[in-house]
Amino acid sequence: MATTTQRDRPPGILGQPPTPRSLKRVITGFVLLIVISIVLTVAFIRYVIQAWLNAAELARATGEPSPSFDWPVMTIASFLFVVLITGLSIIFTYYIIEVRNNAQQTRFMAGITHELKSPLSAIQLYAQSLQIAEVGEEERRRFLRGIVDDVRRLDRLVSNITETGKFDLGVTDLRLEEIDAAELLERYEERVRDRLAFADRPIEVAWDAGERRVIRVDTRRIEQVLDNLVDNAVKYSDSGEPIRFASAVDGGDLVITCVDAGLGLEPRELDRIFDRFYRSPSAKKRPGGGTGLGLFISRRIVEAHGGSLEGASAGVGKGSTFTIRIPSDPSSSPGDGAALESRGGESVGAA
Description:
- This protein is α+β, with helices and mostly antiparallel strands and 351 residues long.
- It has 2 domains: 13-106; 172-343, Histidine kinase-like ATPase, C-terminal domain (Heat Shock Protein 90).
- Helices cover 53% and strands 14% of the residues.
- The protein contains 7 helices and 9 strands, in the order αααββαββαββααβββ.
- It has helices at 20-62, 71-132, 137-168, 181-198, 219-235, 281-284, 294-304; strands at 172-175, 177-180, 203-206, 214-217, 243-250, 253-260, 308-312, 320-327, 347-350.
- Strands 3-5-6-8-7 form a 5-stranded mixed β-sheet. A two-stranded antiparallel sheet has the order 1-9.
- α1 runs antiparallel to α2, α2 (71-132) runs antiparallel to α3 (137-168) and α5 (219-235) runs antiparallel to α7.
- It is elongated.
- 23% of the residues are buried.
């Protein structure tokens, strides 16, 4: 019995993206079907009209009454032609959608594979070095910091994937607590500074030193958002380029900005970067992979707090700025956060 290998299967099956050549053949075949359908329909219409003209001429020659034109046949033929063209168009449209979805899934799996492999390889290298090599205390601490950083990176990746599943179900779980905004930001700065130093990315902060403000947030989720922004800044900027954080209070809202000197974005991409699985063309050319989930998850988390996350850029190669706006109390703000019945320290779900 003959077996069918994955290579033998048509493009678009089992997540296998079509090659440009195979996709070109599909488009060419679709165009040929449309052309053949039009040619056959026109030939049939001409045949019916010519038959009627011949019958009318014969009737005049014999002195008989001229036959009436067969409109029912023409109507049926036209209707079938429309149905045929519509059906072909629908089939072709669904095929293109499947092709895009499969290609998107393939890119996602490639990104996941890279995102998992990189920290695992680094952890293995650090562990082997600690196991078989005589290292000094400072070097040992550096290796341990690297292991902890890569474990956190894996944890963020898993969190992003699981969060996507929850969002698909329309559920966002928040564990809200009251915390001083300055304390939250200073604590995050302390945690991320060593990590960025290890990655040769200096961090510059300008936290608002004015009025201290208590906000009601899920600190773990807000740190997850900040981590995603930092990951993007590290991944898409050159070594040594600083990452700048700033905060301010605007109309009762906490505003946090993250500025990097990375790839930058075209104006048309500023909304699309928050779509699931989306990666900008310039990001795809850069080694390092990516899942296209970080910004999608981040915006949904911020919106669940009743806030907003927006991106800005002066253009490709000119870096990016991401602005997070968080209200003091998400239960008093419009949007997704308005659905929260927030209770400090309790898990709250927004459907």
